[in-house]
Structures are given as structure tokens and as C-alpha cells.
Amino acid sequence: MGDQIAHRLRVEIIRGIIPPDTHLAEDHLAARFDVSRGPVRDALRQLETEGLAEDRRKRLYARAMDLRDVEELYTVREALESLAIRLAIENASAKDWDNVQRIVDSMAAAAEDDDGERFADADMAFHTSFYANSGNRRLLDAWRPYQRIFAILFELSDTSDIASATEDHQGFLDVVRTGDVEASVRRLRLHLTLAKGHVRDVLRGLAHT
Predict the structure, then answer these.
(1) Which segments constitute the HTH gntR-type domain (predicted)?
(2) Pairing label, strands 59-62, 53-56
(3) I need a surface site. Which of 7, 40, 203, 207 has the fewest CB within 10 A?
(4) What is the architecture, at CATH level 2, of domain 2-62?
């Protein structure tokens, strides 16, 4: 329940539905979600860890995501995902990569159906597969807190041309499957640079709505 509440609040804070500096009162949120204060407390702890809530004299307030946050998030993600790709190329089997290909195939199916939500889910699964295939459990655990935020950013910023985005992910996977580590990391950097640009545009748009 705490995870579900955290997701709802995370979406609303990032989208600006909950304005910056809003007091995130446990009793008010418990009444809103019709739960005890325990799950709300767990949710708020997650948001504080993620930088979407801040403590001011024992009271938590919503904190907007700004362009500096985007830079920091993508810098950390590039470091984590570059390592994940390096380890995955070293450790993953052909069967593991076949499973990633199936994810890309599901992206293509979502594109045919013009299903942006299903595409965003597959997009997240694609990137998480590098961490899963790295063979390093702690690296996967390190990605998990960021995964929750990026899942929302994916939904907000994924291009409307999901057919082209699917082709981009297919090309990305094709490079990774060659086993060329440096080319794969370069492809990741380009991929994240473009994605970061989309997120910046979305956040600027939200700030003016």
C-alpha cells in the first residue's frame, strides 16, 4: 500500500498537480487514501529519499523536480547503466539477449497498436534488463529507487512516434549484441542525452501550465 501511495504522490509532484512547498501531512493523506498513517509514512519516506519531499522542522513538504534534478538523475543513471551494460555484455547468455529481443518485439507491437502506456512499460523493462543481466545484484538494487522516478519520466516524455523509438531501441540492442563494449556505452550516452532533452522540454512545459 505504501508503494502505491508513493507512486500516486510521485506522479502528482512531478506533474505539478501537488504544487511545490505543499505540506504533505500524514493525517490528511491517510484520510485521502483511506488508510492508516503507517502506509503514508512509508510512502513519504520514499519520496524524501528520492528528493521529492523535504523535511522542514519535522514536517515534510513537496519539492518540485527542476532542471538541476534532471541533470543529476541522468548523470547517475549514465554511470549505473554504463556499468550494467559492461557487465551484461560480459555475463549474459544468448538466451538472456533473446529475452531482451522479446521486449523490443513487445515495443513494436505496442507501436502498431499506438499504445503509449504499454510502450513505456516495455521501455523500462528494456533498460532494467541490462541491470538484471549484469549478474550484479547490488547494481540492480542501486537502480531500483531511480527506476520508480524514471518510470514516470518515461511516461511523460516518450515520443509520440513510438515506431521510430522502437527502431532506436532495436538498433541499440543490435550494437550491444555485437559485444563491442565501448560502442554500446557510446550508444547509451547518445540515447540518454536525447531522452534527457525530452524530459527537460516536458518539465519546462509543465512549469508554464
Answers:
(1) 1-70
(2) antiparallel
(3) 207
(4) Orthogonal Bundle (1.10)
